[in-house]
Amino acid sequence: MAGKSHALDKLPSELPEAMRSAVERWRPFCDSLEYNLHAGADARLLLATSVRNSRGAARIEKLQKTIQWFDQRLPAVAKRIAEADKPATSPPEDKDKPLAPGESRSWSWSSEDLVPDADCGVLFVLADEAQYKLLLEELARQDKSLEDWTLSARKETGFVVPRPLCAAFLEKAAGMQEWDPEHELVNRCAQLLLVRRFGMQPFWVQQGIGWCAEWAYDGSLYCFPFRREFVYATEHGAWPNELKKRFASGPEVFDWAAFDGWARGRWDSERARVAFGVLAMLLQEPTPRLSLALEELRVFRDTDNRRKTGEYSWERDPKYEIKAGKQAEVLRQHLGEDIGTRVVKFLQRGSAAYKTL
Predict the structure, then answer these.
(1) How deeply is 333 buried, as exposed, middle or buried, from its count of CB atoms within 10 A (0-12, 13-18, 19+)?
(2) Residue 9 lies in a domain
(3) What is the value of pTM for the model shown?
(4) Burial 153-177 (b: 16+ CB within 10 A, else e)
(5) How many angstroms separate the Cα of 90 from the Cα of each of 9, 18, 93, 113, 136?
């Protein structure tokens, strides 16, 4: 695979099944835009770039480093494949039919349903806004539950979705300043790996993993999703010391409710900085403690995010977020009762605390 070229309709026999499925899913779209799919040594990820983009091979190497960084901090955890982990299907046609005594019927359906650590993700590096729009249209075609989301996603310059497992960002767009596509590459890759392994996590966790991967890359931050205001050059490396000042006088214990109300689609400078700092601390805890916590949150979300639509049916709430109290409970269980105190002490240290991220 790595270092070799193959036509998308003539795949090598040794190609892993998950990667083969991803290629077959995206081949018509990539052919229509004249995009190549690049594969490295890791079968979890494909990189899609224009045939006119010469940086595919170099970027695959960069993604491999991000994958290694991610695995060292958030390794997979052994788990029994529960009913909730089985592939999602559409509701049966007789979903509203009353059940006879002793009869049962079950299914799940949602754009966020996936089997953890199973699918091969695809990361699209898009050349312009027109191709970004075409990708969103293709996602809506592939999964009808994404139609409403794609309308709002058109206002942004990138995304990560769990099903079909993929991410994308615009390499160039009008009005982009203080912009670095290599940072976007690393950030979106880390988010994609998080979703692949642990499903949709609290918004601050997903954003935080992207920023931590950026910081590990070169000690600076360039990706600010949903942000509309100007980004100053001094901001790229300022967050650790800004957090140091912010928490210099306490509180003694971090309040996990600080993230309540912060949801996808909205920029919040204060909570963005805090999310970065808190996750940077959690990633430095002994493995696999944080992995175990995120896995428990994944399972909880799967069962708790079910909104009834009838006596025999339910659907996902796309705006669902796990309550702060539950998040705190799970984090204390796996990382220690004093985790809130240790988070504050970490944030009070400033830049020095992030050197081993």
Answers:
(1) middle
(2) no
(3) 0.88
(4) beebbbbbbbbbbbbbbbbeeeeee
(5) 29, 21, 9, 11, 21
Contacts of 9 (CB under 8 A, 6+ apart): 27
| pLDDT tens-place string over residues 251-288 | 999 999 999 988 887 888 999 999 999 999 999 999 99
- Concatenating the DSSP letter of every residue in 146-204 gives GHHHHHHHTTSSEEEETTTTEEEEESS-TT--S--HHHHHHHHHHHHHHHHHH-SPPHH
Considering its fold, how many domains does the chain have in total? 1
| DSSP 8-state code for residue 87 | P
Largest CA distance in the chain: 67
Domain-embedded: residue 126: yes
Residue/partner pairs of 51-55 with CB below 8 Å, 24 or more apart: 52/127, 53/125, 53/127, 53/171
Query: Positive or negative, the Cα torsion across 310, 149, 71, 26?
Result: positive
Q: Specify if 7 maps to a domain.
A: no
Residue 274 CB partners (closer than 8 Å, separation 6+): 204, 243, 246, 258, 259, 347
Give the up-direction half-sphere exposure of residue 186: CA atoms within 13 A in the CB hemisphere.
Answer: 26
Domain residues for 41? 17-354
Judge whether 154 and 134 are in contact, CB under 8 Å: no
Per-residue pLDDT tens for 77-96? 976 444 444 444 455 555 45
The answer to whether the beta carbons of residues 308 and 208 sit under 8 Å apart is no
Q: Is residue 4 part of a domain?
A: no
